[in-house]
């Protein structure tokens, strides 16, 4: 009996590849060949394939790389993850990450995979979402028509106004400006008064009582030995567009001398004196103010210059065997 053997497989047509071993015009069942892919292409599975009745098993396959051009990046406002813009070659199965140019935000996912020469690129949408703010009683910089995410502006309020958020910088976010750049009438914070204090209620409830609004008033008192500008036990201050008016201060008190040798101090009974106040005095006949002017100023609980009256009499000064008259000091008042 004559056994006729017929060929089963023709040489495989391998896109982007070639047969490396056992190259023939035809193949019988169970014949094997080895193939390889062109440089830059990746084969799938084993590089050996077998001839079967249904064909070559497994089917030979060379996967193509992906080519990314600079023009493709420009057309979609894309950048590579390193922030650069250049053509790139990506092997099959490998990934590449993208970002967008300033003023655009990427449509996720930002990481894309090369699949047999096909690379789906992400989109970049315009991220201009913050218009230039309108700030009453204030101004800001830099001045642009619109702003992108992460852009920052700096706000300054007119005199008498303050930023509601107490922060002079605002950032453009997906939800708008954060914090909102808004100027409101300046309020008055809790005043810290050296040598004085507010009323007990204002101190105890300071966390809810302050800041005060423009137009509100509060009272304060000074410690022993100090007086406010009105020279009374209590004084009141008012919150204005420019802060507290008057500025709450406690001044040291000066006591006028009860007795001035060879002179007298002139002031009304009951008068009180604080830093900066002046007092006058007169010297008796034959005496004059030691520091020429009959005026002294209250400074830090004392009088400057010292209140003192000195004699204008002629005295003799001894010098050896000769005596000289001490010269007169003439004071022009």
Structural summary, described in words:
The chain is mostly beta strands. The chain has five domains: 17-63, Ribbon (Complement Module, domain 1), CATH 2.10.70.10; 66-126, Complement Module, domain 1 (Ribbon); 130-185, Complement Module, domain 1, CATH 2.10.70; 196-252, Ribbon (Complement Module, domain 1); 255-311, Ribbon (Complement Module, domain 1). 5% of the residues lie in helices and 41% in strands. The chain is built from three helices and 36 strands. It has helices at residues 70-75, 200-204, 206-209, and strands at residues 17-21, 32-37, 42-43, 48-52, 55-57, 62-63, 66-68, 78-80, 88-90, 95-100, 104-106, 111-113, 124-126, 128-131, 138-141, 146-148, 152-157, 161-163, 169-173, 176-178, 183-185, 196-198, 217-222, 226-227, 234-240, 243-245, 251-254, 263-266, 273-274, 278-283, 287-289, 295-299, 302-304, 309-311, 316-319, 322-325. The strands form 13 sheets. A four-stranded antiparallel sheet has the order 1-2-4-5, with no helix packed on it. A four-stranded antiparallel sheet has the order 15-17-19-20, with no helix packed on it. Strand 25 and strand 26 form a beta hairpin. The longest helix has 6 residues, at 70-75. The radius of gyration is 49 Å and the shape is rod-shaped. The protein starts with 16 loop residues before the first strand and ends in an 8-residue tail after the last strand. Residues 7-64, 128-185, 252-311 form the Sushi domain. Keywords: Disulfide bond, Signal, Sushi. This is Complement factor H-related protein 3-like isoform X4.
